[in-house]
Amino acid sequence: MHQTSDHTDSPASPSEPTLIGRTGTLYFPLALVSRLPFAMMVIGVLTLVVSARGSVELGGLNSAMVGLGVACFGPLIGAAADRFGQRPTLLVAAIANSALLGALAWIAFSSLPIWVLFVGSFLAGATVPQTSPMSRSRLVTIVAHDLPVQRRPRMLSNVLAYESAADEVIFVFGPVIVGALATTLGAWAPIVGAAVLTLVFVSAFALHRTSAPAQSAGQRAVVAAPASELARPALLVTVFGIVTVGLFFGSMLTSLTSFMQDRGDAESAGLLYGAMGIGSAIFAIGVAALPPSFSLRARWPVFAACIVAGAILLQWAHDVPFMLLSLALMGIGVGPLLVTLYGFGAARSPIGRSATVMTMLGSGLMVGQSAAAAVTGIVATDLGTRAALALPLAAAVLALVAGAINWGLSAPSTRPRTAETAVVAE
């Protein structure tokens, strides 16, 4: 027994396979950068259309079309990867998405009618490569099948924590990059940049040796839980929770764009958003250091309350320094909340459906962001920036309400119900 314990807690011996040995050292930076265009798209389209067509409302509606495209076709892209393999699915999506983003940048500044712009935005969202859930699927598969049994639980926990933090960091810093490109090169630059990143890095991610092959129908039937398991209340409230974070992102970005447009500098909204992004990323990474006694169940309402506090302060933001202060306070809660929600998603994924659940969460984030961008754009146009700044507070309150509902659904003794995520405790 003593020898077994020593072997379990000790580092891998040189003869044992390791995660880095299976993925290679370039996998993690490649997987990180390849998901960046996804995070740039909504705010990039918003910035592009506001600058090209001069309307926050129109910019928000086009962002909503991007989200609608993701919602309609994102899960189908995930299903195609299961059926045909990740490599061909991602290559086709990368080429199509890159071409459509480039076309969208041209359409925005052309004299073509608005409906053409809407169609372009929808198609750009419909072809977004789902690199984030596919990366999770690859790493979970490697851990579950290639690493020694005694090292799998801890490594799987580390992988899920890393993937959640990576998603959050990219999703927060995407708008910052959009702001930097828009202010230095022009409003077209973020969308063209996303197109180039997609073509280069998503294609490289598709061709990487970890790319998951297609499964036969028989294999899928053996390993996958029934699709009805995806409708469990605990999983649905997790999806709703991440939609509320998307609502916060979309309303905050759009109202901030309106706030800066009032000052004649709409292109700088993404840079100003970095005040929230920096703190959010730091606190998201710091979640790994939190004690296990501070459970996911408790973290959700606590972090949501931090966002609510910052959003209340936002209502009195009448200049840039005060706006920066409120953004920094909200950043304390945003990153850790997103990591917490992805942790719940991993823990509540039915067996064999983890990629589907992660796609649902990623799509929910984008749909929430896009829908809120559309509504906030209309409010900003019709009622003004002050009214638009109330919407991030409403989204934060919804996130807190979702956390309270989740508290009731999650008993303190609840444990994950799947083989793949049994190391993640609620």
Summarize the structure.
This protein is mainly alpha-helical and 426 residues long. Helix content is 77%, strand content 0%.
Describe the structure.
This protein is mainly alpha-helical. Helices cover 77% and strands 0% of the residues. α4 packs parallel to α12, α9 packs antiparallel against α13 and α12 packs antiparallel against α18. The N terminus and C terminus are likely disordered.
General form: globular
What distance lies between the first and last C-alpha atoms, to the nearest angstrom? 29 Å
Largest sheet: number of strands, sense, barrel closure? none
Number of helices: 18
Keywords for this entry:
426 residues, mainly alpha, 18 helices, 0% strand
Tell me the layout of helices and strands:
Blueprint: H1 2-9, H2 19-23, H3 27-34, H4 36-53, H5 56-84, H6 86-109, H7 114-126, H8 131-146, H9 152-184, H10 189-207, H11 217-223, H12 233-261, H13 269-286, H14 296-314, H15 320-347, H16 354-383, H17 385-388, H18 390-409
Helix pairs in contact: 3-10, 4-5, 4-9, 4-10, 4-12, 5-6, 5-7, 5-16, 6-7, 6-10, 8-9, 8-16, 9-10, 9-13, 9-15, 12-13, 12-15, 12-16, 12-18, 13-15, 14-15, 14-18
